[in-house]
C-alpha cells in the first residue's frame, strides 16, 4: 500500500506517474532504507522539509545500485503528485538550491514543453554550484545553469529517461513562444551601442572648430634640445646593442685567445713592476756603497747619539714619575694620620715629650 500512487492522481504521458522511473530502479528505491524510514507517509507539506535537507543530487551509485535521497524524493513526488503551484514555488526558491533542482527535475518529468521552457529557462542565470553523485560513488561539481541545460537537451538524467518535448524553434514558428535572447547577446548589443556612441562623440569632437585649429599633442614637434637628447640616447642604445651583438657573435676560440692575451698583459705589467722595485733597491744599495767611510761613520754616530738622548729622556721621565708617586704616598700617609683623631692626639703628646710620632 505504501508504494502505490494516490487514488486521485492524474496520468502523465498516458501512464501511471511512477512508471516514468524504470522498474529496476523503482524496485531498488522501494528496498532502500531512506525510502522506508524517511519517505513513509510523506505528504506535500512534509516534503518541503525533506527537500531542504538534501545535500547533493544524483541517480543510483555503487556496485549494488543504491539510490540517492534525491531520486527517492523524485519518486515520492510522482507518487503523491503535488499541485503545480507547489512545484513552481520549489523552482522559484532562491535560498535552497537543491530544492530548486528537485522542482526543476519534477517539472521536466511531468510538465509540458511550454511549462519547461517557461519555468526552466530563467534558471540559466543561476550560477551556483551543485554536488552530484556519480555512478562510482564519487562527488563532482556542476553549476545550476549546466544542470538545467542538461534537463532541456539531454535524453537521460539521474538514471531516468526524460520524456520528449518539442524543440523551441517549432514553438517559436507557431508563435507560442517568443524568441529567446541570451545574456551574452544582450551584453554584445550593449557593447555595440556603447562603441557607436563613442565613435559618434569622437567624430563630433574632431568636427568642432577648436579641435581643427589646435594640433594634437602627438603631432607637436619636439624642441631642438629635446630632439638632440633623443638622438643621442638613440645612438647610445644602438652602440650598446651592437657591442652586445659582437660579444655574442664571438666564437669560443676567439674568446679564449682574448682571455689568454689579457692574462699575459696583466702578468707582464706585474713583472715590470717587480723589476722596477728591484732596480730601485739596487740603486739605493749602490748609493750607500758609494759613500765614503767617513760619512757612513758620521751617520752611525749621529744615530747612536740620538738613541742615547732618547734613553736619557726616558730615564728622567721615569724618575720624575717615581718621585711623584712617592710624594703622593707620603702625603696619603700624613692625611690618614691627620684624619685619625686618636693618632693625632698621641702624636701631639709625643711631640711635647720629645718622642718620634707614630706611624700608621
Shape: elongated
> Helix/strand/pairing class, anyone?
mainly alpha
Strand content: 5-15%
Q: Kindly report how far apart the N and C termini lie.
A: 129 Å
Largest sheet: number of strands, sense, barrel closure: 3 strands, mixed
Number of helices: 15
Topology pattern, helix = H, strand = E: HHHEEEHHHHEEHEEHHHHHHH
Q: What is the percent of helical residues?
A: 55-70%
Low-confidence stretches: 213-222
The rounded Rg comes to 56 Å
Please state how the strands of the largest beta sheet are arranged side by side: 1-4-5
Mean pLDDT: 80
Number of strands: 7
Give a written overview of the molecule.
The protein has a domain of 149 residues. Helix content is 66%, strand content 6%. It is built from 15 helices and 7 strands. The chain has 360 residues and is mainly alpha-helical. The strands form 3 sheets. A 3-stranded mixed β-sheet has the order 1-4-5. A two-stranded antiparallel ribbon has the order 2-3. A two-stranded antiparallel ribbon has the order 6-7. Its main location: nucleus. One of its GO terms (biological process) is mRNA splicing, via spliceosome. This is Pre-mRNA-splicing factor 38. Belongs to the PRP38 family. One of its GO terms (cellular component) is spliceosomal complex.
Quick description:
This protein is mainly alpha-helical. Helices cover 66% and strands 6% of the residues.
Amino acid at each position: 500500500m505504501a508504494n502505490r500512487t494516490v487514488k486521485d492522481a492524474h496520468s502523465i504521458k498516458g501512464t501511471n506517474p511512477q512508471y516514468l522511473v524504470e522498474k529496476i530502479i523503482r524496485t531498488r528505491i522501494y528496498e532502500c532504507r531512506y525510502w522506508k524510514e524517511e519517505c513513509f507517509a510523506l505528504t506535500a507539506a512534509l516534503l518541503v522539509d525533506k527537500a531542504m535537507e538534501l545535500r547533493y543530487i544524483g541517480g543510483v551509485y555503487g556496485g549494488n545500485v543504491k539510490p540517492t535521497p534525491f531520486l527517492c524524493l523524485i519518486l515520492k513526488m510522482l507518487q503523491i503528485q503535488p499541485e503545480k503551484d507547489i512545484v513552481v514555488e520549489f523552482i522559484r526558491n532562491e535560498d535552497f538550491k537543491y530544492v530548486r533542482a528537485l522542482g526543476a527535475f519534477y517539472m521536466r518529468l511531468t510538465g509540458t514543453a511550454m511549462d519547461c521552457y517557461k519555468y526552466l529557462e530563467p534558471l540559466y542565470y543561476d550560477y551556483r554550484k551543485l554536488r552530484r553523485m556519480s555512478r562510482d560513488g564519487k562527488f563532482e561539481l556542476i553549476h545550476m545553469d549546466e544542470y538545467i541545460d542538461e534537463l532541456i537537451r539531454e535524453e537521460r538524467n539521474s538514471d531516468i529517461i526524460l520524456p520528449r518535448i518539442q524543440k523551441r524553434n517549432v514553438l517559436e514558428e507557431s508563435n507560442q513562444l517568443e524568441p529567446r535572447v541570451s545574456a551574452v547577446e544582450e551584453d554584445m548589443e550593449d557593447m555595440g551601442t556603447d562603441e557607436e556612441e563613442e565613435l559618434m562623440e569622437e567624430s563630433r569632437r574632431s568636427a568642432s572648430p577648436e579641435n581643427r585649429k589646435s594640433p594634437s599633442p602627438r603631432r607637436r614637434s619636439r624642441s631642438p634640445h629635446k630632439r638632440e637628447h633623443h638622438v643621442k640616447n638613440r645612438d647610445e642604445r644602438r652602440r650598446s646593442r651592437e657591442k652586445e651583438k659582437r660579444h655574442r657573435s664571438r666564437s669560443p676560440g676567439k674568446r679564449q685567445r682574448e682571455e689568454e692575451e689579457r692574462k699575459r698583459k696583466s702578468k707582464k705589467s706585474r713583472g715590470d713592476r717587480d723589476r722596477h722595485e728591484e732596480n730601485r733597491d739596487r740603486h739605493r744599495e749602490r748609493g750607500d756603497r758609494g759613500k765614503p767611510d767617513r760619512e757612513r761613520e758620521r751617520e752611525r754616530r749621529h744615530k747612536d747619539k740620538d738613541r742615547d738622548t732618547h734613553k736619557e729622556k726616558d730615564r728622567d721621565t721615569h724618575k720624575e714619575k717615581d718621585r711623584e708617586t712617592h710624594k703622593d704616598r707620603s702625603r696619603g700617609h700624613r692625611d690618614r694620620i691627620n684624619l685619625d683623631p686618636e693618632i693625632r692626639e698621641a702624636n701631639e703628646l709625643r711631640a711635647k715629650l720629645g718622642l718620634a710620632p707614630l706611624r700608621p
